[in-house]
Amino acid sequence: MLIDRLVATALAGSLMLLAGGAGAQTVGPSGETATRSAEVRLSDADLAAVKEKGYKGALLWHTSSDFTNAVTAGAKDEFARAGIQIVATTDAGFDAARQRSDIETALAAKPNVILSLPLDPVTSAEAFRQALTDGTKLVFLSNLPKGYKHGTDYAAIVTDDLFQMGKQAADALAKALDGKGKVGYIFHDASYYVTNQRDQAFKTTIEKDYPGIKIVAEQGISDPARAEELASAMLVQHPDLDGIYVTWAEPADGVLSALRASGNTMTKIVTLDLAEPVALDMVKGGNVTALVADKAYELGRAMAAVGVKALLGQETPAFVVAPALTVTKQNVAQGWKDSLNRDAPQSVLDAAK
Question: What domains appear along the chain, each with residue ranges and CATH number?
Answer without folding.
Answer: 3-161+296-322 (3.40.50.2300), 162-295+327-352 (3.40.50.2300)
